[in-house]
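Re-run with default settings, no changes from the original entry. Doing this only to confirm the output is reproducible before filing.
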Amino acid sequence: MLEDRTTAASAASWPAAYPQGYAVVDVETTGLARDDRIVSAAVYRLDARGEVEDHWYTTVNPERDPGPVWIHGLTSEALEGAPLFPEIAEEFAARLDGRVLVAHNAVFDWSMIAREYARAEREAPVRQRLCTIALSKELRLPLANHKLESLAAHFGVVQERAHHALDDARVLAEAFRPSLHAAARDGVRLPLLECRPLTEWADGPSPRIGPQSGGGGYGGYGPGSWRPSRKRPACPYPNPGWYEPGRPLKQGMRIAFSGDTSVDRELLEDRAVDAGLHVSTSLSRRTSLLVTNDPDSGTSKVVKARQYGTPVVDEAAFGQLLLDVEPAEGA
């Protein structure tokens, strides 16, 4: 069935506005904060119709604790002899040049890549990105959630080493091709977003570095959790009210999450807290924003958001908003 549909799409007139090439990317990192680093990267280059041209993979020495070893499997010992990012920046750039960057939750992969190039005093040659989460929504794929494994299963793609950059990039490339052909067949406009490279980098607070205990910890956290407990200190900023679409988030806003996310929920919450936002486990009239990839679900938070008129965005949009959070009044 899948082969017949793909062949039909290939035989049809291909949309002239579609890009001429794609770079399907996956990066594994030490964490999700702005000062975290890439530990491995993979690129599958595809032609205009999604056919694989070649692939490339490298580990990267992050010059710090490797973070969640229990996820990506790369220990300090494994990364000790790996090249530094500036040493692979040219080869990486050559594989991105002139192509649309494709990734699952692309805002995350792009932001990590852009920061690494800024640290190296260079710019990544990427001007557009395409998030496969957004594309699956445009295609209205009947997915249980927005995780890569669900997208892969939908297209019959077998994952061999989840959270290994090369295998994740392969899986995404294999799932992207039929998605691209389905979009071409149905005349769907691809959800392309602009990439704006960072032009300079200023180091912020020292990275959270901790001992690798229990199979590889991060900042003292164990493999079952990214923090000692779910209890957090109170947000130091007052709640400025609801998020206004088209405007930045502001420190102190109350953020609630509902449903599955492609990035681990606790990691998203940690990013929100690091940005000065208040993470709420429930939704009330004081909640500034609800983040959900399934706004049509019947979860209690989604139902309350409809009742209260609480603004709602998906995970990819929230990731973009986290890149530029306004400081609180007087902060």
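Confidence is low (pLDDT under 50) at residues 1-11, 205-230. Strands lie at 21-29, 38-47, 52-59, 100-103, 128-131, 192-194, 254-258, 278-280, 289-292, 312-313.
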